[in-house]
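In this supplementary section we document a worked example of the pipeline. Step one takes a protein sequence of length 349 as its only input; no multiple sequence alignment statistics are reported here. Step two produces a three-dimensional model, which step three serialises into structure tokens for compact storage. The input and output of this example are shown verbatim.
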Amino acid sequence: MRTFETIVSGIRAMMLGSAERSQKKEEIAMKVIHCVKYGSHRDLVVAEVDPPGPPQPGEMSVRIKTAGIQFSDLVRIAGDYQEKSELPFVIGGDAGGVVTAVGDGVEGFRVGDAVLTPGGCVERVNVAARRVTPLPEGTDLEQAASFRNNYATGLWGLQLGRLCPGETLLVHGAAGGVGLAAVDLGKLMGARVIAAASSEEKLTVVKTLGADHTINYTDGFRYQVKELTGGRGADVIYDPVGGDVFDESMRCVAPYGRILIVGFTSGRAATAKTNHLLVKDAQVIGYTMGGLSRHDPEKNRANAEILLDWLSHGRISPYVSHRLPMDEIVEAYQLIVDRKVIGKVMITT
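The serialised model returned by step three reads:
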């Protein structure tokens, strides 16, 4: 017959065993958001997979806390991106996390460091140390993970557009991720900024980043731009929208103006009429961040350092309008589809 002490001991052992099994399961399984077939964001899968093993030489392990998603993900998911990703792939972009292990040969990083890393919507990742950016002490992880892609796109575009202090910058899609970044950067670079968006709610947020003028372009914008510039037009036009917006931009670009082609969220890639460019003495400049990283990695790194310095000193102000858990990834992308996101939507892991 078992004694009371034996029974208690047995119960304690069962509880400890259950806790150990639970911990072991937690260590074994991790969540990841996979695109398993080209098509719709509604086909995304939240899966449980084995975590990566110990980091290899030159790598580090990072526990991701928050990751950004963006419109370009939807293009990748549809299979329409310039370079198709091999299925299945992890969706999402930059992520903010904490270093949990460091491989041989890695210098300058310690366990517990806050970092910015590629990785996307996954709980843990092993990544080459050269691809990881240490964050200055006190830098907010969410802000760090939300800003780089959008602000890097904005800065490189405005550099290509040769934006000068005192010039007029017209930003379309000004409440979107890359648009809001361009407003913020344009003001920092000394431009007079006209921000155009599709609702008063969005324009209210845009004003907080210092836009000098705002336009609701639901009913067009060229006459308002002309009026605000004394008939001259905008010196630099930042256009992530394309389609009809680009066509109308050609009507209000200043002499020797530059139109920056950032994308075409409208769904239609516009056609630039060369006779209009001749009459306007204007330029149309297309660019991608992938092109910069391939063709001029030093410039890409230099810009990243500039932006991180500005972020750590509070000179730029990334804006996050929505935060959702991994299990609500379909709802998160639907916010982008429905154009309800202002600035950035972040996924918490």
